[in-house]
Design a protein that fits this description.
Elements (H helix, E strand, L loop, with lengths): L4 E3 L11 E5 H6 L10 E3 L2 E8 L2 E5 L2 E5 L3 E5 L4 E4 L6 E7 L1 H7 L2 H10 L8 E3 L2 H19 L6 H23 L2 H4 L3 H14 L6 H7 L4 H12 L3 H19 L4 H7 L5 H12 L3 H7 L2
Parallel strand pairs: 1-3
Antiparallel strand pairs: 2-9, 3-8, 4-7, 4-9, 5-6, 5-8, 7-10
Length: 290
């Protein structure tokens, strides 16, 4: 089994930049040092806007079909892969956390990260014609500055246009998912999510996470139900399963070793746990992804 490739941010045209703009159709045809049609992990953020044709894209084991006016957001650390398409065309906006931090206020940066949070909002949006046209105009301004007029003023213009894109995207996603403005506890839930990602192999107990957040288990359950209408335990288990899937895909570790790595004293317990939530065994899942 091949180890999943981790793709770091690498702007070949502007090596000092933390931003890049690419054409989807060129990437689908280009010969790279990694196969983009095989699951890989990105170490940056990505916005994909489809302008023509149809296709499909996988993000964290979920397939998303797309067509003109579709927008996909992929956050740092997610697994994804492309599918070849003869008709698909579009724009790919790539950027790092440093890029966001350099152009947005602290509050705006936090909101921006929420835009890419797959638990809070779907990574896929079908844009209205008006929203699509507004975003494409900004992207085309960036493209002109980036590829045609690049000079000492271009970086500032690109940053301003990206600022507008992020704000407009936040407005668009708020329309599709009012959770950002109508729900309490979004910030607390995000903290809970980050703690699970950091500690899920050490503990799967709600009480432990409540202690980390200096709150009661009742409060933590209220936070979870307010945001996703799920118990805190369900959210922990779902995120653990995603992490196990990533290990199965990302390493050649034997199942027994993975069981101990993720906190099970007996490999049999991993089998039961994994099958309960996926209706398949770890081996069958690993085999199906290859």
């Amino acid at each position: 089994m091949k180890k999943i490739k981790h793709i770091s941010f690498n702007n070949q045209n502007q090596p000092k930049s933390n931003f890049d703009l690419l054409r989807l159709e060129e990437i689908l045809k280009r010969k790279l040092n990694h196969d983009i049609t095989i699951i890989h992990k990105i170490e940056f953020y990505q916005i994909l806007i489809i302008t023509h044709g149809k296709g499909k894209h996988t993000i964290d084991f979920n397939d998303h079909s797309y067509k003109k006016n579709t927008l996909l957001t992929i956050r740092k650390g997610q697994l994804h892969k492309f599918f070849r398409s003869k008709t698909a065309k579009g724009y790919m906006l790539l950027f790092t956390e440093e890029f966001l931090a350099s152009q947005l206020s602290k509050i705006e940066v936090l909101k921006s990260f929420q835009l890419f949070n797959e638990l809070l909002t779907s990574p896929k949006i079908e844009l209205s014609t008006r929203d699509f046209n507004d975003l494409i105009k900004l992207v085309q301004q960036i493209e002109a500055e980036y590829h045609e007029n690049f000079d000492e003023f271009s970086e500032g213009i690109i940053r301003s246009a990206m600022h507008m894109i992020i704000i407009k995207l936040f407005r668009i996603k708020t329309k599709h998912s009012p959770i950002f403005t109508q729900k309490k506890y979004v910030q607390e839930f995000t903290q809970f999510q980050h703690l699970i990602e950091a500690h899920c192999f050490e503990t799967k107990k709600v009480l432990d996470y409540a202690k980390m957040m200096n709150c009661s288990t009742k409060t933590l359950n209220n936070i979870s139900k307010s945001i996703l209408n799920k118990s805190a335990k369900t959210i922990i288990d779902e995120m653990v399963i995603t992490q196990i899937k990533r290990l199965l895909m990302n390493t050649s570790m034997p199942i027994k070793e993975i069981a101990y790595h993720v906190g099970f004293n007996d490999p049999t317990n991993l089998y039961k746990y994994f099958k309960k939530y996926t209706q398949t065994s770890p081996e069958a899942f690993r085999l199906a992804q290859n």
